[in-house]
Amino acid sequence: LALSIVRERTxxxxxxxxxxxxxxxxxxxxxxxxxxxxxxxxxAISIALLVTFLHVPILAPLxxxxxxxxxxxxxxxxxxxxxxVVSGSERQAVQLSMLVLLASMFFSGFxxxxxxxxxxxxxxxxxxxxxxxxxxxxxLFLRGAISQPWQLLALASLALALLLISWALLRREMRPA
Length: 177
What we know:
This protein is mostly helical. It has helices spanning 4-11, 13-19, 24-53, 62-86, 90-106, 119-125, 129-143, 150-174.
């Protein structure tokens, strides 16, 4: 998703969007739905493989797991869309995506515990969707309940904020000149 708007700019499709009746809302919804369906499919297969072959238990209701996965997907898609909207070139979009990926790997609790970092890094990690997604899914899979319900709200807030910011920036860009 991080390359989609950049490629539409370079191919001239964004100029066509400006003069067509399509709105930024429809463009964002189309991208979020398309990539969301693809991400949901991958998540469902991954969860099925975890349960079937690795025998990881899911102690929580499947609906709650699906809700967390959907919120995580929405927030991640919002972040990818934001990267795409603010990037001026494909190279810049790839570089920003790699920085976010590295930050997500090292500062989200995936590799190292967040509590081992200094306080400013801990605060910054709260702005990464994957930080909350990892914690929530660990709780749901292994404990059967969410130990810190505020993380569900944080994940939903991140999703909403990232999608709204991306939409607003795209809307400004799509205004006819």
